[in-house]
Write a structure and sequence with these properties.
The complex is a heterodimer of chains A (564) and B (448).
Chain A lengths: L15 H4 L2 H18 L7 E7 L2 H12 L30 H18 L2 H7 L12 H16 L5 H18 L2 H13 L2 H4 E8 L4 E3 L1 H13 L5 H8 L6 H13 L3 H12 L20 H21 L12 E4 L1 H7 L16 E4 L13 H6 L8 H12 L27 H8 L3 H15 L13 E2 L2 E2 L4 E3 L2 E3 L2 H9 L2 H16 L8 H13 L4 H9 L13 H5 L3
Antiparallel strand pairs in A: 1-2, 2-3, 4-5, 6-7, 8-9
Helix pairs in contact in A: 2-6, 4-8, 6-7, 6-8, 7-8, 10-11, 10-13, 12-23, 13-14, 17-19, 18-19, 21-22
Chain B lengths: L7 H10 L33 E6 L15 E2 L17 E5 L15 H8 L13 H9 L8 E4 L9 E3 L2 E2 L6 H9 L15 H14 L2 H5 L4 H24 L25 H20 L5 E5 L16 H7 L10 H23 L1 E2 L2 E2 L4 E6 L15 E4 L10 E4 L6 H10 L24
Parallel strand pairs in B: 1-7, 1-10, 3-12, 4-7
Antiparallel strand pairs in B: 2-12, 3-11, 5-6, 8-9, 10-11
Helix pairs in contact in B: 3-11, 4-8, 5-7, 8-10
Classes of the chains: A mainly alpha (564), B alpha/beta (448).
Chain lengths: 564, 448
């Protein structure tokens, strides 16, 4: 198994260069030629199905995988497009703007400068030039063949490799600096379409089409690790192993057992839980002094740690995320939750994150009662039952809540200073008497009102403006009395598991799930249930399924994505 | 001899041929940027090129309190819009225009901008068609260093500018980063006495040309939608190449160009009013100087975008919440707090215009050779209304627009403004928009 594992703290040292002998470059070149012959779209027998823009996180992960985690890829990236609840599904519809490419260019040059810096050369280069002040064909070839395969996610074709070597040579000649030449070529590779987009290539079979092995490798690694394929996966692709059920299962199991799965699961949940909203989240410092920007960051991390611990470490039931009282806290979060957090580990060293379990009678149970969900789905200075209820419906149950209609009177009783309507329930009940509004508020507000014990900063409260809070309600016929029982109701909701399975599959596809796949979604959900709602099993089912690698013929895409 | 560049290939060929190491100072084909937009006079010696910009503010303006009573020239600025009085003679106010949904669902705070800038609604809050600032940039900003600049004062990456359905031109949120981007090491001062082409830039330009060569193999075999997305990438790549090529040329002197001071790097946009105001002041300066220095001819600046959640410190409610939840004051006839927020963004627009107008170019100003289109997302935001959306155009676009006019339309589509601005900027179209929003009727009252 790949020895370069993601561990907290310390530098991840790329050791793959030591394993790649010079002799393998020739083999790579042969494989690359074969690839081009297979993948050349000018061959009328082949079709290409889609391109996907990589995300900033994938960019950084690839750079870390290839060059180690001291090489950073900061800078300006373009926002993605959220489709059907996931930014990942927008990867198949977004492109790169002029402004975005300028940002990518600056980042690429910065990364390249870090890679060729004197302090990193020895570690990151598989060879040394004969003369550092002149081009060196052999070393350039070796560098770009090795690095290019990992960045572009397949062996470079001979002519591609030559183009990068030529670039480096010209630049080295002009600057009289071999490493400056490499930096020019590397920066160009990092803004090339083959790097900024990953693509699926389909090849004909006896019965239709299938993805070529390198497309499968990229699809798998982005899905499970949120990064490009490693050496072993590319080798499996080269050998054709990914085209056999046994070979595919072997690689899937390897990826699933790797510590790098955590990065993949975190990436999914950051997307699924709309954590891009944290970029602009703020609470009024005068009203909520405890909810600092550090607290917001910790809130996000708390939920991610809860998820990873529950789903991967404990191999727990996904539905229990809505009821679990196990979590992790920092002293900063302790002030938000109003609980003491021991800031010292067993050996006396300060410990920032501490495992914590809320008491059985505590109002905090499940991720709906965690600060990330509560603060993200509120106004800056006030909670919002409607926004919270809408988020539960749309994120966890995959139910679309319509946008509010136009020309609606909102102010009937929304004045918070009105003594008649002191609580959100009272104000919303009156607002919902408006016929145009009542339909949607009926499906969102009861859910959100169950969470009214938590203010916008997630701090606990018994009353609002002195009036006691009524947190009772029902969701689709399941009754609840407070936040913990709302979590239980959600745990038992028939749409919960199906929604999760759909979103995970959609995340892996990088596009919307067409309606024609509803039967497959039902199968996937049943399998998820049969396996005790374990996420690792769900990822495995998807990763080894034929459906995940099903080729759509161009021309069908538009109708499929419109829901046929 | 002056040779007008016909296509990218010849330039690329020249660049490639120079990288043997010696001939880095070889002359490149003459760039269109040295010509004015009509191509008939050198920019340095004749009329300066026109500029266009969008200024976006959120949540409309309380109806009945911004529209002048009098139509035509010499209109009366209402007391609630008094912040704009210093610029009244250079501002056209357009009232009475609306966005038609044509049966599509309302995307609150999204549909209005979609129609104003893209010509049609897309049936929801998210997404949109290509916005008309891009058509204008294709004409007036093709050969500037930046095709356009986008910035946002409220800390969000909100941008009304979309190059296509799949490409948003994202906003800069950090004044420090925008400063570096424009006036950092890669800035070439047009008024500098000496000019030496940067060797590293020449090398980069050549390398980008090689990346461009990947187009054929990359797009081959893609379906129509993916090919379009790939082509958008290659269009962006050409822009980047163009940007580098321009910086390899000695720019024509621009008398009004000066490099602003970097400013306080700690200033960052946020939803708090003072932060947004401070950011607006810096972005105004950076954008104005970028225009004056010929770095771009098009910009998109958002003060508080659409669906503004601007807020005051210590207040539990945001601007957006107030629009829906504040009661109309029975005496004043409007929502008091909402009015105060609306006036904050009107003042910010006025401050922006002050900076544009302070840059003197002969007997005119930068504002005079520009058209700045100020728009918002709703008419009456309290009701998510799309009627009577407040629109304003400041500046005379180098004499192509009359100014100081109030145009009182009668329920026409807001697309009339977009069509007029495109035509004024030289976009060769006679109709614009789709469905009921399609129009071939320019606002003749303001066309010079």
């Amino acid at each position: 198994m790949e020895k370069m594992l993601r561990v907290s703290g310390g530098e991840r040292r790329p050791n793959r260069f030591r394993r790649i002998a010079l002799a393998s470059v020739a083999a790579v070149a042969v494989a690359a030629t074969a690839f081009v012959n297979l993948g050349n779209a000018e061959d009328a027998a082949n079709i290409e199905t889609a391109i996907y823009r990589i995300t900033p996180e994938q960019y950084q992960n690839i750079i870390t995988d290839v060059f180690g985690n001291t090489v950073k890829s900061g800078g300006r990236f373009e926002p993605g497009a959220r489709i059907e609840g996931l930014i990942a599904a927008g990867a198949s519809v977004v492109s790169v703007s002029g402004s975005g490419l300028q940002g990518a260019d600056a980042t690429a040059r910065d990364v390249a400068a870090q890679v060729v810096s004197p302090q990193r050369r020895e570690l990151l280069f598989p060879c040394a030039p004969a003369n550092t002040k002149a081009p060196d064909d052999a070393c350039s070839n070796q560098f770009f063949a090795t690095v290019g395969k990992l960045l572009i996610r397949r062996p470079l074709a001979a002519e591609e490799l030559k183009a990068y070597v030529d670039m480096a040579n010209k630049s080295a000649t002009s600057s009289k600096d071999f490493y400056a030449g490499i930096a020019t070529g590397l920066a160009s590779m990092l803004i090339s379409p083959e790097f900024l987009f990953w693509r699926e290539i389909a090849i004909p079979t006896k019965t239709g089409y299938q993805f070529d092995a390198y497309s499968k490798a990229a699809k798998l690694s982005f899905f499970l690790w949120n990064s490009g394929p490693d050496e072993q996966l590319l080798l499996a692709a080269k050998k054709g192993e990914l085209n056999t059920p046994k070979g595919l299962q072997k690689q899937v199991d390897r990826l699933l057992s790797s510590p790098r799965l955590e990065a993949g699961v975190r990436a999914f949940f950051e997307d699924y839980l709309h954590y891009d909203g944290f970029q602009t989240l703020s609470k009024d410092a005068m009203i909520y002094p405890n909810f600092t920007s550090n607290a917001a960051e910790d809130a996000k991390e708390q939920t991610l740690r809860t998820v990873v611990d529950h789903l991967l470490v404990r191999n727990g039931d996904y539905r229990d995320l809505f009821t679990t009282r196990h979590t992790f806290l920092t002293p900063t979060l302790g002030t938000v939750y109003g609980v003491p957090v021991l800031h010292q580990g067993p050996n006396g060293a300060p410990e920032e994150w501490v495992p914590f379990e809320f008491a059985p009678n505590d109002a905090h149970a499940g991720i709906l009662t965690q600060a990330s969900f509560l603060s993200l789905n509120s106004h800056p200075g006030r909670s919002s039952p409607t926004i919270r209820g809408k988020a539960v419906r749309e994120v966890f149950l995959c139910q679309k809540v319509p946008d509010p209609p136009g020309n609606v009177e909102f102010t009937i009783v929304q004045d918070t200073s009105n003594p008649t309507y002191r609580t959100a329930r009272a104000r919303l009940s009156a607002h919902a008497t408006e016929p145009m509004c009542s339909g949607c508020h009926k499906i969102t507000d009861p859910i959100g009102l169950a969470l009214e014990n938590f203010d916008t900063d997630s701090s606990f409260r018994e009353t609002e403006k002195g009036a006691p809070l009524d947190t009772k309600g029902t969701i689709d016929g399941i009754a609840f009395s407070d936040a913990p029982s709302l979590g239980k109701a959600l745990h038992d909701h028939p749409a919960l598991a199906k929604c999760f399975a759909t979103r995970v599959y959609q995340y892996g596809l990088g596009r919307q799930v067409p309606r024609s796949e509803s039967e497959w979604i039902a199968t996937l959900t049943a399998d998820f249930a049969k396996n005790g709602y374990r996420m690792r099993d769900l990822l495995r089912t998807i990763s080894i399924s034929d459906k995940f690698y099903e080729v759509r013929v161009p021309g069908q895409k538009a109708s499929l994505e419109k829901g046929e | 001899m002056v040779v007008i560049l016909k296509n990218d290939v010849s330039r690329r060929r020249v660049l490639r041929g120079t990288l043997g190491g010696a001939a880095v100072t070889v002359g490149l084909p003459f760039l269109n940027c040295f010509l004015n937009t009509n191509g008939d006079a050198l920019a340095a010696g004749g009329a300066l090129p026109v500029c266009f910009g969008n200024y976006s503010r959120g949540l409309g303006f309380p109806p009945g309190f911004w529209e002048p009573k009098v139509a035509g020239a010499n209109y009366d600025m209402t007391p609630h819009m008094d912040a704009l009085s210093p610029h009244k003679k250079k501002i056209n106010i357009l009232s009475g225009m609306k966005a038609f949904l044509d049966g599509k669902p309302l995307g609150p705070h999204g549909s209005g901008p979609q129609v104003i800038h893209g010509g049609a609604p897309v049936g929801g809050l998210v997404g949109g068609l290509a916005t008309f600032d891009n058509a204008i940039a294709d004409v007036i900003s093709r050969n500037t260093r930046f095709r356009s600049l986008e910035a946002s004062c409220d800390g969000s990456k909100f941008s009304i500018s979309r190059r296509s359905a799949s490409v948003v031109n994202p906003s800069e949120t950090s004044p420090a980063e925008l400063y570096t981007r424009i006036f950092g090491p890669e800035f070439v001062d047009p008024n500098a006495a000496d000019f030496v082409p940067d060797r590293a830039t020449l090398i980069r330009s050549s390398a980008l040309s090689a990346v461009s060569d990947q187009r054929k193999s990359f797009v081959a075999g893609l379906g129509a939608e993916d090919r379009a997305r790939a082509d958008e990438y290659f269009t962006s790549l050409r822009e980047l190449e163009n940007q580098l090529q321009i910086s390899l040329q000695k720019p024509a002197p621009l008398e009004a160009c000066s490099v602003p001071k970097a400013g306080d790097p700690a200033v960052k946009g946020s939803l708090l009013i003072p932060d947004a105001q401070a950011t607006n002041a810096i972005f105004a300066k950076l954008i104005a100087h970028a225009l004056a220095c010929g770095q771009t001819s098009v910009f998109n600046l958002s003060f508080d975008g659409s669906l503004s959640n601007l807020r005051k410190a210590g207040d539990s409610m945001t601007y957006h919440q107030y629009t829906h939840e504040e009661a109309v004051d029975p005496v004043l006839g409007y929502q008091k707090t909402v009015m105060s927020f609306a006036q904050v963004s009107i003042k910010a627009f006025s401050d922006f215009l002050t900076v544009m107008d302070s840059i003197k170019e002969g007997d005119k100003t930068l504002l005079d050779r520009s058209a700045v289109f100020c728009s918002t997302d709703h008419g009456y935001a309290r009701m998510h209304g799309l009627e009577n959306i407040q629109l304003m155009i400041a500046g005379s676009a180098g004499g192509r627009l009359k100014t100081g006019v109030h145009v009182k339309a009668n329920g026409d589509s807001v697309t009339r403004a977009g069509l007029t601005l495109q035509q004024v900027m030289g976009v060769p179209i006679s109709t614009w928009g789709a469905g009921t929003n399609q129009t071939s009727k320019t606002i003749s009252e303001i066309v010079a």
